[in-house]
């Protein structure tokens, strides 16, 4: 109840939309970087970009679009130019997340600073999350104790990564123990979003790719990013609410 009241008072939906926008902006240079890297790999291995895209696990409309973009002769130039753009977008995302946490904890985002340590930790956390998503994908294709163990590892890795990120974000005068609920929620939330994308969003895009094309893919992507933004906002609100309740109970 306290989380819902805090979410209503600070405009959690608007904050989630702002985070989704920053995530989308980050994806643009990231996509260019990966596509150019795919083209460089195809040239180095003397393979076609279409085969390289399929080897990377891409299929259908997405594979054809990526292969077409990766065939550019200026892959090296694109790769080098996207590096500073990626760093800038990552710094802006960190600031957006920091302001969100400051609002959730203090009710105001004034005085929030962007530090290179925080940006670096956030970048590493995102990389670990992507690698953990690959582990979760392997778990879905497995059965038995192995799959369950991989899912547990996903929750542990993502939750721990977000705990370190949270320690670099505004969180009042509490210790890291007070940040554990929010970090755990991020792990569970991102796992749920990942499952939703695999079993719902991806199938809808594949089935309707010829009808909606790139517009349908963009809409599905934006919806997923809004869900991720919602998870981040609620995780900050949960930790802040529990910490406030704990302080109020102290004599």
Could you explain how this protein is built, in words?
This protein has 251 residues and is mainly alpha-helical. It has one domain. It contains 9 helices and no strands. α2 (12-44) packs across α4 (60-70), α2 (12-44) packs antiparallel against α5 and α7 (145-167) crosses α8 (180-207). The radius of gyration is 20 Å and the shape is globular.
Topology:
Blueprint: H1 2-10, H2 12-44, H3 49-55, H4 60-70, H5 75-106, H6 116-140, H7 145-167, H8 180-207, H9 209-249
Helix pairs in contact: 1-9, 2-3, 2-4, 2-5, 2-9, 3-4, 5-6, 5-9, 6-7, 7-8, 8-9
Keywords:
251 residues, mainly alpha, 9 helices
Total separate domains: 1
Name the helix and strand elements from N-terminus to C-terminus, one letter apiece. Answer: HHHHHHHHH
| Main beta-sheet annotation | none
What structural class do helix, strand and pairing data support?
mainly alpha
Rg calc: 20 Å
Report how far apart the termini are. Answer: 23 Å
How much helicity do the residues have? over 70%
Proportion in β-strands: under 5%
What is the tally of beta strands? 0
Global mean pLDDT: 79
* Bulk shape: globular
Q: What ranges have pLDDT less than 50 throughout 5 or more consecutive residues?
A: 56-67
The helix tally amounts to 9
